[in-house]
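Q: How do we represent a protein-ligand complex in a form that can be generated token by token?
A: Start from the inputs.
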Amino acid sequence: MAVTVEYDAVVVGAGAAGMAAALTTARNGLSTVLIEKAPVYGGSAARSGAGIWIPGNEVLLAAGVPDTPAKADTYMAAVVGPEVPAARRQAFLTYGPRTISFLLRWSPLRFSWMQGYPDYYPELPGGMPDGRSIEPRALDANILGAEFARLNPSYVPTPAGTVVYDVDYKWLSLIARHPKGLATATEIVLRYLQLTAAGQKPISMGQALAGGLRAGLLAADVPVWLDTPLLDLHVENGRVAGVVARRNGQETLIRARRGVVVGSGGFEHNERMRKQYQAAPIGTEWTVGASSNTGDGIEAGERAGAALGLMDDAWWGPMIPLPEGPWFCLSERTLPGTIFVNQAGKRFVNEAAPYSDVVHTMYAKQHIPCWMVTDQDYRNRYLFKDLAPLLPYPDAWYSSGALVKDWTIAGLAAKIGVPAAALRATIDRSNAQARSGRDPDFHRGDSTYDEYFADPTNNPSPCLAPIWLPPFYAFKIVPGDLGTKGGLVTDARARVLRPDGTVIPGLYAAGNASAAVMGHSYAGAGSTLGPAMTFGHVAGLDLAATN
Ligand SMILES: Cc1cc2nc3c(=O)[nH]c(=O)nc-3n(C[C@H](O)[C@H](O)[C@H](O)COP(=O)(O)OP(=O)(O)OC[C@H]3O[C@@H](n4cnc5c(N)ncnc54)[C@H](O)[C@@H]3O)c2cc1C
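Then emit the structure tokens for the protein with flavin-adenine dinucleotide bound:
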């Protein structure tokens, strides 16, 4: 090994967890280096919508959200279940708000409440129908200087001349239906014009989040070494004392006087690990996570003796395998006028349920792929991906097999290989339910959550509409994800544990490299980024407090 360098803290991965950790160690006086495998920083965080679920933070309280620690605790306990130790849930709820306050102090990030975006189970005790998620406000990319060019691009680039927030999507999809749709479209252009007139280069959502964290690191003088993958952890006398990385083509030992934080994301792009740990059918083609997330930190931690948890699970979401890449099907699925059917031509799930739950059901019942059946009335009404209402779906979607069209239900059934009589019966039944405004079969529309990406102008239910106007369409639906959620098992201080529950000295993990504090569930919009940054912060604080 040719080169050896030394810092107090070595952080692996320049995503949400890693950047929060490095900012924390640096602002607590530790010399810190952050190594990043990709030629860009930001990981999945930069690609994301940047919703952040952290109950009781100061942004929510300032907005008048009636959240309390007791409510949050009750809700988390109900959602997450007993498999995540209460101490870890408690650490998240205690340190989450402190993480937001820390970021407000030491980075240019500013946040807004995503008002009206419900918790995913708002009817559970402590759940909030108006939500407790926040998102970054637009950030001026000028503060990043040359580093802006090295920010990982977003999954859905916002159209030129606009500044779009998460909370805008709901209304943009209703542009042809509701006056607030057009008003929102106007507002996102005006927002852009105002900010650019003030000399800003505005970025939003995941770009703002990752850019803001990076700007914090710039101000704190933390070196971020791109193109520098972790190869292995360096262990001395049972203690993690650094990492071996490849830097400038050379194997480099980076010693860590205090410890190492693994924030290298999940294993969504590791075909072998996915097949080893997860249920079939699985591969790497349906994920939208950052392509550099191949589980390197998880494997290195395991070699150092760590226990692994939740490896079978992911931040799932129904995905349409479009030829340009998998499309995370969110509002498209929950707007009225769609149903999911299995190969028997039958419904099997509440299509508007939280994305993770829909895929858990797809796997549990082995309905993979399934089909989202819809009609021309739906196409005339709503934005679909970036396709304005009324416009024809692209030819390439048909030729790839992701989309099928026919003028009759029987014809559609034949093309997707389901029994025609069964599909006809399913559509007749769901049409009758749509006209009555109730879905006693799968309870679509019973939860406030179901109504978020729905159509308030549709009667009698904003969630249910008949499928009646030819031509009819069927989109192929596969189990995709935003990334995996299993990894190194950690304690309430983000310290990595062995299978016997003892701590591996010097080793911390946060974000998708660690087993999620959410367990198998998903509490609300931002349930991955909120904990990732929180446990990155917790790891940094613990390192700073350790001799
Ligand atoms: C399209 C999309 C939308 C999303 N929207 C949301 C949302 O609104 N709210 C939410 O909470 N979550 C959302 N997510 C999920 C969220 O972005 C991730 O769960 C989160 O970023 C995980 O944080 P992390 O720090 O663990 O990983 P990441 O942010 O992915 O960062 C991991 C970093 O580690 C680096 N790395 C990997 N291997 C190595 C190695 N060997 N050496 C050094 N570095 C390495 C990677 O290159 C990457 O930069 C979304 C994800 C996507 C893809």
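The mean pLDDT is 97. DSSP finds 17 helices and 21 strands in the chain.
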